[in-house]
Structure formats: structure tokens, C-alpha cells
Design goal:
The chain has 273 residues and is an alpha/beta fold. It contains 9 helices and 8 strands. It is globular.
Length: 273
């Protein structure tokens, strides 16, 4: 993507469906976004059926095309010890049809050998679909640290398996944002952008903070400008900004605020082309 672009992460406005999010993102000034098209577990309810719903896929594809929007990534089921690859096959099919580049994955299976085998088979299928797995370190998953994810890269050994870097989770997992400077850039699918206090607020669990209490870039304490410079201009940047203070704004007003504040931050730190 062009260095001047940045993507809207679905979690920024998670209370609307994929079709509405596409429309809101386009109107707010974004040219790319990520979407969630399933719940986090197959058995969980999901109000916006896309997988197994060809008519909805057609509607989403048309909305993306009409709005000149690029679909960066898809969020879907988490990986648990009992997750069969067959659960992900219709997700891969829908994601490919929609034109996504990545499917985000986070794992709750602590058995490294079993997960490595699963990811290897998953990556092979993703390669056939011309997509990549974007593996995310999540501070409350089975893989909380960047070094664990890097070890998985070495074990899976597939060009269709890479990393998605979220600064909040990297810090909450005990790491430093400067650790990304040592990564091979070809191993990075994209990076999410948000701000946060250096120390997690008292009385707030990690999941709640991640899903609803992030800060706009430059409005908390993370060294984001250095993080972005370490990544370099060619790594896609997705703004992941569910901000508690603005939760009562309309979806469109939230999207506009996210776009305006993120662009201003990137311009202030000379991070746009």
C-alpha cells in the first residue's frame, strides 16, 4: 500500500456490521479497512452472517467496489485445541472472494507442536488462495510475547504465515515496542496503531482494555512514532481505536474522528508520504 494510506480496523467500530462499516469508513475518508465476518468461536452467535451466505458476500463485494475500498484483512475464529481446519475453510473461501490479503489469527492452544502442524496446513491452503495468515500476539492468549510468535515463524516456515503487530498487546505481554526493529520486514503482514498508558489501569482486565479502552495516537504514553519508524514506511498501518470516551458518538462520527486524529498524528511526526 502507499505510505500515505492507513487502514481502519474493524474493532474501532465493532458495534456495526460489515456492510455498514464499509460505508462508514468510505464516508470518513478511509480507502482500506479490515472486517470481522464471524464470531470468535463457531458456536457463538453472530448477527451479521457472511460465511455460507453468497448473497451477503455479493453485497459486501459491491460495497467495496462502489466505494473504492480495499479489503485488507478478515478477523474470524480464534484457534483452540479442538478447532478443526474445516471450520476455517468457508471463511477462507469468503475472504478470497471478497479480495482480502490477510486472515488474522490468534491462538489459545498452548501445545506448540499441535499448533505448528495446524498452522502449516492452514498456511498451505491460504497460499493456494493467495492470502497470508496474520498471526497476532495477544496478551491474554496462549502466545503473549513477540519471541513466541517469532519462534512459530521458524517452525511453520511458510511465506503465507506472517505477523500482525499490535503495540498494546506487545507492551501488555511484557515486551518493548523497540523489539520490532530486529524483525525481518518480510515477516510482518501489518501493524495496528493505538496509544495506551505504559501500565495497565488498575481494575481493568486486559480484554476490556483491548476491546474498548484504547487511546488515539499521541494521547497516551506509548512510543508510537519510534515504533512506526522502526517498522518502516512500507508496512501497512491499521488504526485500531475503540476509544471509551467516544463510544456514544455515531459510527460515522467515530470513524471521522479516528481518521482526523490519526492523520494529524502521522503528519505531525512526518510519517506520511
Amino acid at each position: 500500500m502507499e505510505p500515505s494510506d492507513f487502514t481502519l480496523g474493524y474493532l474501532s467500530i465493532a458495534d456495526v456490521g460489515p456492510l455498514t462499516l464499509i460505508e462508514v469508513a468510505q464516508e470518513a475518508g478511509f480507502t482500506s479497512l479490515g472486517l470481522r465476518i464471524t464470531a470468535r468461536k463457531p458456536q457463538d452467535p453472530w448477527a451479521y452472517p457472511v460465511v455460507g451466505n453468497p448473497q451477503q458476500v455479493v453485497k459486501l463485494k459491491k460495497a467495496l467496489s462502489d466505494g473504492g475500498m480495499r479489503l485488507s484483512n478478515i478477523s474470524t475464529f480464534h484457534i483452540y485445541p479442538d478447532t478443526p481446519l474445516s471450520d476455517l475453510m468457508p471463511v477462507i473461501e469468503a475472504s478470497h472472494e471478497l479480495g482480502a490479503s490477510y486472515i488474522v489469527a490468534c491462538a489459545y492452544d498452548p501445545d506448540v507442536a499441535r499448533l505448528t502442524d495446524f498452522l502449516g496446513r492452514y498456511a498451505q491452503i491460504m497460499g493456494e488462495a493467495k492470502m497470508r495468515i496474520a498471526f497476532e500476539v495477544v496478551s491474554y492468549s496462549a502466545y503473549t510475547r513477540l519471541d513466541q510468535a517469532v519462534a512459530l515463524l521458524g517452525q511453520v516456515r511458510s511465506p503465507h504465515f506472517g505477523l500482525m503487530l499490535d503495540p498494546l498487546h506487545l507492551v501488555r505481554g511484557g515486551g518493548r515496542l523497540s523489539d520490532v526493529a530486529d524483525l525481518n520486514k518480510s515477516d510482518i503482514c501489518f501493524a495496528q496503531i493505538c496509544d495506551a498508558p505504559l501500565i495497565k489501569p488498575n481494575g481493568v482486565d486486559a480484554s476490556t482494555e483491548a476491546k474498548s479502552m484504547r487511546f488515539y495516537p499521541g494521547e497516551a504514553e506509548l512510543p508510537l512514532a519510534t515504533f512506526l519508524r522502526d517498522l518502516g514506511p512500507d508496512i501497512e498501518r491499521e488504526v485500531e481505536l475503540p476509544v471509551w470516551a467516544d463510544k456514544d458518538l455515531t459510527p460515522l462520527d467515530r470513524a471521522r474522528t479516528i481518521h482526523q486524529k490519526s492523520k494529524a498524528y502521522f503528519q505531525r511526526h512526518q510519517l506520511l508520504a
